[in-house]
Amino acid sequence: MNDYWIDPGTREAYPLAYGAYRRKREAQEKRPPRHRQLGPDIDYFLWRRWQTMASDVEIVLAVRPDAPPRVQRLVAHVLVAIRRGRSASEAIRRVARQFGLRHGRACAFITAGITFERQSH
To answer: Exposed, middle or buried: residue 21 (CB in 10 Å: 0-12, 13-18, 19+)?
Structure first.
């Protein structure tokens, strides 16, 4: 008795047991992850890259003039929390809670309400 079957299109042998078949198919069809978390290696790479560029470039962050006053206050509170030593994610999360918003919604407001530009010295 055969414990496998052959796919006619690829001539690949697959086991008859569903669990073994699924494991083999999953191993073949591994997709790369859609998102990669920014780990220490990425931070270090970007830090080194910015060190070479930082000497002649300045990044200016500004609130858009057409941003609603509530978004302007949200950004101001986040910047104050960051100046007090909180990480950006924690600052946004705490300020979002103060404003009665979810973290993702606060990030969307901040993203839509700020702009930045690079200026050469």
So the answer is: middle
